[in-house]
Write a structure and sequence with these properties.
With 420 residues, the protein is mainly alpha-helical. 67% of the residues lie in helices and 3% in strands. Helix 9 runs antiparallel to helix 10 (204-220).
């Protein structure tokens, strides 16, 4: 094993230098830290088959790197990022707040939580029929959790999501090879959605943690799609953090991958948004056209959960509105938002709040202050309901715009209800 690690590290370094890439540039492409990659190159950390395949693909090694770290033929197992002795600790308070933390068993004992209620799943593996029932019920629940996420804050959605991910992982561990992969693939979708809810709660670190876990689960379930979609999700997180360059780089990687049309279409949308923020008008519009073509050509599988927004009838038009806003074309953006927000389903409070606030912001920047205030006032109940960090960020932008019109009667009436 040590010799295998050393051989891979030397070959990886040789090929990386030949490509004239820094460790950071390689890390951006394969989504591992440069510190971790440095340890792999020096033979201090054994490479995983996943890392070997990613590096092989990015460096166009034609299988030479992947061959140095062959996949163990033990069948897919449930991977645990970071520590094989990991325990999930979830706290639920009677007053409402809850928290989640992955810890080691040693850390759990140190925290004094070793005597918590333990539920053993039982030794016998479920029959194939039982596994199929678990899969069918969990698939139906997933749609309901996504609907719940439209009418509740992340604190009301994350605890049951986390519990369901754990349940699916445990059934996958116990089940046979035939039933294991579908359970892992569904657990990966749950984890991806948990990452989105974590981002909505304002915790970007947790969002990335869950996104990474979804990739590990998908890899164990032989689903390569989520690994690329994770780049799209990270692109969005980077965009919200203000790192436009990284957002664009991640979107480009996903766009030029062999991923399904929908994933590449969503990547093109994020690339358009990053280019809009950077002021690249022509590049933004080209990416939007590309997104529309890719998404229009996608043949969705009705039996699988939808990746990305599922409550927006025309997601490209909605993204176009926001891009137009970032390009300084607020009036055109407002007109587009007027049309598209009217098509959002009534029960999708989170989606209505997100794009409704952006609609109000576009109208405010376009100088239509009274109309912007009217839109925002109607949205306040939905904003309070969903507790969205991303919506709140846009609402603070609206507040800053409206402060320039403090003498306006509508602004004076609305300001006490807006965030500072």
């Amino acid at each position: 094993m040590l010799e295998e690690t050393r051989d891979f590290g030397q070959e990886l370094r040789t090929r990386r230098l030949a490509a004239r890439w820094s460790l950071q540039q390689l890390g951006l492409r394969v989504h591992y830290s440069k510190g971790y990659l440095s340890k792999v190159e020096r033979g201090l950390t054994p490479p995983t088959p996943e890392l070997a395949r990613l590096c092989d693909s990015e460096l166009k090694a034609d299988g030479a790197l992947a061959a140095l770290v062959p996949r163990r033929h033990t069948g897919p197992s449930v991977p645990v990022p970071g520590n094989d002795d990991e325990v999930w600790l979830m706290r639920l308070s009677k007053d409402g707040p809850s928290s989640f933390q992955p810890v080691t068993r040693r850390g759990l004992i140190a925290a004094g939580a070793a005597s918590v209620l333990t539920l053993h799943p039982g030794a016998p593996a479920p029959a194939q029929e039982g596994a199929e029932t678990v899969l069918d019920v969990s698939r139906a629940l997933f749609d309901q959790y996504r609907r719940l996420g439209q009418a509740s804050g992340p604190a009301g959605v994350l605890p049951p999501l986390i519990a369901q991910i754990h349940t699916l992982e445990q059934f996958a561990k116990q089940g046979g090879t035939r039933g294991r992969q579908p359970l892992l693939r569904l657990a990966a979708r749950y984890a991806e959605y948990a990452g989105w809810m974590a981002q909505e709660s304002g915790d970007d670190t947790a969002a990335i943690w869950w996104t990474d876990r979804s990739v590990h689960l998908a890899d164990a379930g032989a689903d390569p799609v989520l690994a690329t979609y994770a780049q799209v999700r990270r692109s969005l997180v980077s965009l919200y953090r203000g790192d436009v360059t990284e957002a664009a780089d991640l979107a480009v990687l996903a766009l030029h991958s062999a991923a399904p049309l929908r994933v590449r279409g969503l990547a093109a949308q994020h690339l358009a948004q990053a280019r809009a923020v950077a002021g690249d008008h022509a590049g933004c519009l080209r990416s939007l056209d590309q997104a529309r073509d890719l998404l229009a050509a996608d043949a969705a599988d009705p039996g699988q959960p939808v990746l990305g927004a599922s409550h927006v009838p025309d997601v490209v038009s909605m993204f176009t509105g926001w891009c137009l806003y970032d390009l300084g074309r607020a009036r055109e953006a407002a007109e587009l938002f007027d049309r598209e927000t009217a098509r959002i389903p009534p029960h999708a409070y989170r989606t209505r709040a997100r794009y409704g606030v952006r609609r109000a912001l576009a109208h405010a920047v376009a100088g239509e202050i009274d109309h912007a205030c009217l839109i925002a006032a109607d949205l306040l109940p939905s904003v309070r309901l969903v507790h969205s960090a991303t919506v709140s960020a846009d609402l603070r932008r609206l507040t800053r715009v409206l402060r320039r019109h403090a003498r306006n009667r509508s602004v004076r009436d609305l300001m006490p209800h807006l965030p500072l």
